[in-house]
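About this split. The held-out portion is used to measure sequence recovery: a designer receives only the structure tokens and must propose an amino acid at every position. Recovery is the fraction of positions where the proposal matches the reference. Here is one held-out target exactly as it appears in the evaluation file.
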């Protein structure tokens, strides 16, 4: 089997709201999610023995990885044994940043497996396989622009984002997702972004209306030190012409949304003087 390769695009949360804790222990989410051109690369070949994973630019955790669990779940859905697979990741998307880099890698692997072993598998079935691995896997499998509800796995396709550009910056600290969820208190104090208004703006093709409704509940539970860093990045983006700026996911990466004819190089260069991980990106449509 020759090597097959797919891009693994990152995601941003144009709006992220959390409505409360569910009886199953997850949280009830309401988000507008968008795939962007910042991406890793995932390669697959049938070789070696068992499941082998290597990652350029990333230290792998001990034990069974999400990629191996996803491959096992995929072949279990087919009723077939796992063949010997060698998977290689070339990382560019920062980890622990709120950009879904790890989930995007797993989703790209699932798309590769479907392409190679089960091209007739319905997209919904592949998304369901991903959903058994993580809540944002179904969106990362599908890509594009979507309203994500439930625990993040109930997707409604939305009209594509109007032409625009992004500058994305990750400050020099991590915010793992689990501890960020643990900070949330549902006592009426959380500010909630206008997700419905953003959906309406997308339906109108109104980029400025969408920008006015960007927001992320997780920004309300940052520590003072974290907030200062996030606000510094947002202010830099806005000062250099962004229509809006917000943290993505559980953070700490921040994105600025720019009009399609806006100059983004100034914002990127200003941020690069202080931060090592700064990227320019564009929206990406459906992947599957």
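Reference sequence for scoring:
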């Amino acid at each position: 089997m020759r090597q097959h390769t797919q891009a693994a695009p990152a995601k941003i949360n144009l709006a992220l709201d959390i409505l409360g804790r569910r009886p199953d222990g997850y949280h009830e989410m309401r988000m507008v999610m968008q795939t962007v051109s910042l991406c890793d690369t995932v390669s697959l070949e049938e070789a070696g023995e068992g499941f082998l994973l290597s990652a350029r630019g990333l230290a792998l955790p001990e034990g069974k990885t999400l990629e191996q669990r996803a491959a096992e779940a995929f072949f279990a859905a087919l009723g077939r044994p796992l063949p010997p697979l060698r998977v290689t990741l070339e990382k560019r998307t920062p980890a622990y940043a709120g950009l879904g880099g790890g989930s995007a890698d797993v989703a790209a692997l699932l798309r590769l497996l479907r392409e190679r072993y089960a091209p007739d598998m319905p997209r919904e079935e592949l998304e369901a396989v991903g959903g058994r691995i993580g809540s944002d896997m179904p969106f990362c499998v599908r890509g594009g622009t979507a309203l994500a509800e439930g625990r993040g796995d109930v997707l409604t396709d939305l009209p594509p984002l109007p032409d625009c550009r992004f500058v994305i910056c990750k400050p020099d600290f991590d915010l793992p997702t689990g501890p960020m969820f643990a900070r949330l208190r549902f006592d009426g104090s959380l500010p909630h972004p206008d997700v419905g208004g953003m959906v309406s703006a997308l339906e109108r093709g109104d980029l400025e209306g969408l920008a006015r409704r960007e927001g992320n509940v997780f920004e309300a539970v940052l520590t003072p030190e974290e907030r200062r860093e996030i606000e510094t990045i947002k202010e830099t983006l806005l000062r250099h012409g962004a229509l809006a700026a917000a943290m993505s996911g559980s953070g700490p990466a921040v994105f600025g949304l720019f009009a399609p004819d806006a100059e983004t190089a100034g914002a990127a260069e200003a941020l690069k003087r202080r931060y090592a991980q700064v990227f320019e990106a564009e929206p990406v449509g459906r992947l599957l």
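Annotator remark: The first strand starts at residue 4 and ends at 21.
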